[in-house]
From TrEMBL:
This is Cinnamoyl-CoA reductase 12. GO terms for molecular function: oxidoreductase activity, acting on the CH-OH group of donors, NAD or NADP as acceptor. The lineage of its organism: Eukaryota, Viridiplantae, Streptophyta, Embryophyta, Tracheophyta. Keywords: NADP, Oxidoreductase. It comes from the Eukaryota.
Length: 319
């Protein structure tokens, strides 16, 4: 099969990026993956992927170090900008821990893309940049025209939401201003099988349900999407010439209670929350129609949960 060209994936060792790298290699791309500490054992899984020996090169890069990004991106045709801090608790120093790397980091990646004459960059944003918008009517389906309100995020101290909203809107604006083809994707909570040995924030949501045995857990709406379907979406957005602007990426909307019941019926022996609080908020509705019109499909939730649990067992994350 002919080679598809050379692409860079930032934060290659993370949960989503690992699947993106694996999929790109399986489709005969040459991949430059950026990691912060190439010698760290937590990235060893990347070098074991099929075709990694021949087609994957890891680069040491930090989002706040322009030169390191420039070196990794040079010579590539496209970039998947996936890296961003994803905190699982509230940050004590949000500017340094989240906002700086997300906003300035994305800006650095885009500058390096312009310098390397990159044909398209796919930036991973989040629905955190979509749905924190109190003026959007609750009954109206949220599509790509809905943006989180940065003042609201700031007032609620939702620093990750603020960071993703600023990073994404500035990325799209940068693209328009500099003539760089920037496409963004906004996934909901991403779950599924892990390739990496460490626990990321969204995987922790499932692990808490399976093993924490908490006295009480909040019953809330969970909008979920499989990590493999997100990786497919990123590549679709890179390859489809007609892709433009932003894309919401979501598959299933479910209450925590239903999620717990689905897991319990299949795996009765784990330590589930003992009680779920009553759920009071009105559900919100998000649409991935724009992405589906490009040909994106998602798998059933049962498959995602089964494969996720199996991977947690294999990785010793349920012990
Ligand atoms: N998982 C979700 O539910 C979800 C939903 C919507 C959007 N997203 C977005 O998807 C992307 C990937 O998230 P994930 O779930 O895969 O999280 P993850 O496993 O925590 O991956 C985040 C990656 O970002 C890298 N990173 C963080 N700060 C960096 C910095 N200053 N310089 C270089 N790299 C840095 C990390 O590198 P190290 O390995 O060196 O720490 C890691 O590889 C993020 O942009 C996130 O906002 C995630």
């Amino acid at each position: 099969m002919a080679m598809k060209g050379k692409v860079c994936v930032t934060g290659a060792g993370g949960f989503i990026a690992s699947w993106v790298v694996k999929l790109l290699l399986s489709r005969d791309y040459i991949v430059h993956g950026t990691v912060r500490e190439p010698s760290d054992a937590k990235y060893a899984h990347l070098t074991k992927f099929d075709k990694a020996n021949e087609n994957l090169q890891l680069f040491k890069a930090d989002l706040l170090d322009y030169q390191s990004l420039r070196t990794a991106i040079a010579g590539c045709d496209g970039v998947f900008h996936v890296a961003c801090p994803v905190p699982s608790t509230t940050s004590s120093n949000p500017e340094t821990e989240v906002i700086g790397p997300a906003v300035k980091g994305t800006h650095n990646v885009l500058e390096a893309c312009v310098e390397a004459k990159i044909k398209r960059v796919v930036v991973v944003s989040s629905v955190a940049a979509v749905f924190s918008n109190p003026s959007w009517p609750r009954s109206r389906v949220m599509d790509e025209s809905c943006w989180s309100d940065t003042e609201h995020c700031r007032a609620s101290k939702d620093w990750y939401f603020l960071a993703k909203t600023k990073a994404e809107s500035e990325a799209l604006e940068f693209g328009r201003r500099c003539g760089l083809d920037v496409v963004t994707i906004c996934p909901t909570l991403v779950i599924g099988p892990v390739l990496q040995p460490t626990v990321n924030a969204s995987t922790l949501v499932l692990l808490r349900i399976l093993k924490e045995g908490s006295e009480s857990m909040e019953n809330r709406q969970r909008m979920l999407v499989d990590v493999r379907d997100v990786a497919e979406a990123l590549i679709l957005l890179y390859e489809k010439r007609e892709a433009e602007g932003r894309y919401i990426c979501t598959a299933h909307s479910i209450e925590t209670r239903e999620l717990v019941d689905a897991l319990k019926s299949k795996y009765p022996d784990y330590s589930y929350p003992k009680k779920l609080s009553e759920w009071k908020a009105e559900p919100i509705s998000l649409s991935s129609e724009k992405l589906q019109r490009l040909g994106w499909k998602y798998r059933p939730l049962e498959e995602t949960l089964a494969d996720a649990v199996q991977s947690f067992k294999d990785a010793g994350m349920l012990e």
